[in-house]
Write a structure and sequence with these properties.
Elements (H helix, E strand, L loop, with lengths): L3 H12 L5 H38 L10 H4 L4 H11 L17 H12 L4 H27 L2 H12 L13 H16 L3 H14 L7 H14 L9 H25 L4 H4 L13 H10 L2 H6 L5 H22 L6 H15 L15 H6 L3 H9 L3 H23 L6
């Protein structure tokens, strides 16, 4: 593994003898972050490519024409994003599902690439995902080094890159781009670069509805900054507040587009009805999935697969895991991280997929949590024990392989 001890002499030779030690250290640190990001990225790709190709060859239920690498990953929401990139938004009233449930930045970037390259929309999405994931890993390591030691930073990035649902960082899903925007926003906040944070937050809001919640860490970091200001300068407050306003501006831009094209700025909310998304008490979704999971024993005794019960158990387990990690990290993580993660989890809980014909109340929760980075820092702190670290890596990679098999076979996983 490329270590700081090996990087520093190289950096000193590159910068020259007249360069200050601080500049050498800064270059060494950046090179180290790049090396860690590259290692995690390559590890993620090796696992996913090998497992998906083996699945395509070994499982009889994978169609012969879909056994090559790219067709194996053309599943589920990929179809929505490709259709959006090729044809734009089309409104269908519920109960028919509509692509207005998907926010525009990711398919727009796909479409832009198809105009300047020979890529298809699907291939363009893979390119955007690949670049975004690699950049997000690098920025995540930089962010972690701002508050934690190098060992914690390295473990945390590995846990994220090899997390069981990290398969969504491979195919044409918006997770990688959204993660990049979120980490870019928070990293800029920690460096007190308000306008960069605002622009990244705006991009996140144009990628996902949950991006709007980046106003929470922005507000917390800004309040902390103001409290630390000595002496007090009221004239310095306007610029960060204007930067903060960029985050909801992303949503307003999308709403303005919907109003102009369809005559209803809130269609993105109405589109959620077709997915049975609705407001509910935060305990309703977990209780429904817990009740569903309790039927596992009966289903297996009847020699049935119990697929819905297994999915309910998976969704509930990942929810509990992240809630526990946020609680454990409350005393260690920066306050803005804990508050942000708590608010995101609460919003996910009060917006379950609940209603007639929808058996999975916590639908997609493990995937939504994938882009919530603070709990991964909790894992990185827990991994200080070698035994815990080994256990986490074995479990994570094993589940990543299992979830990949499920996904490329065309089954739902998150």
């Amino acid at each position: 593994m490329l270590t700081l001890g090996r990087i520093r002499p190289l950096a000193a030779r590159i910068m020259g003898p007249g360069t200050g030690q601080q500049e050498v250290e800064r270059l060494s640190s950046r090179q180290h972050s790049l090396a860690i990001a590259l290692q995690v990225f390559v590890a993620n790709r090796i696992v996913l490519i090998i497992i998906s190709l083996l699945t395509g060859r070994l499982f009889y239920d994978v169609p012969r024409l879909a056994r090559d690498l790219l067709p194996l990953w053309y599943r589920w929401d990929v179809l929505w994003y490709v259709r959006l990139a090729d044809h734009g938004y089309v409104w269908h009233s519920p109960p028919v599902q509509s692509d207005l449930a998907f926010f525009p930045l990711y398919p727009l970037s796909m479409h832009a690439l198809t105009l300047v390259t020979p890529f298809s929309a699907y291939t363009a999405g893979l390119f955007v995902t690949t670049v975004s994931f690699a950049a997000a890993l690098y920025l995540f390591h930089r962010l972690l080094l701002h508050d934690f030691d190098a060992a914690v930073a390295e473990r945390t990035v590995f846990y994220l890159g090899l997390f069981p649902t990290a398969l969504f960082f491979f195919t044409t899903y918006s997770e990688a781009l959204y993660l990049l925007c979120c980490i870019g926003c928070v990293y800029a906040l920690r460096l007190r670069r308000w306008w960069i944070a605002g622009l990244c937050g705006m991009a996140a809001t144009l990628t996902r509805q949950l991006g709007l919640l980046l106003v929470v860490p922005f507000a917390v970091e800004l309040f902390t900054y103001w409290r630390q200001q000595q002496p007090y300068h009221p004239d310095r407050r306007s610029s960060p507040l204007l930067a903060l306003a960029l985050i909801p501006t992303g949503l307003l831009v999308f709403m303005a587009y919907l109003q102009i094209k369809f005559g209803d700025a809130l269609l993105f909310l109405r589109a959620q009805i077709a997915w049975r998304r609705t407001l509910a008490p935060p305990w309703q979704g977990p209780l429904q999935d817990a009740g569903q999971a309790l039927h596992l024993v009966g289903h297996f005794s009847e020699h049935t697969r119990g697929a819905l019960e297994v999915l309910s158990l998976i969704d509930l387990t990942f929810l509990v895991l992240f809630v526990v990690l946020v609680a454990l990290g409350a005393r260690t993580l920066p306050r803005s991280y804990t508050i942000y993660a708590s608010v995101v989890l609460f919003v996910i809980l009060v917006n379950p997929a609940y209603g007639r014909g929808q058996p999975l109340a916590l639908l997609s929760v493990p995937r939504f949590e994938l882009t919530l980075f603070p709990p991964f820092i909790g894992l990185g702190l827990l991994g200080r024990s070698r035994t815990v670290d080994l256990f986490l890596m074995i479990m994570s990679v094993s589940l990543l392989a299992l979830f990949t098999i499920v996904f490329v076979r065309g089954r739902w996983i998150a």
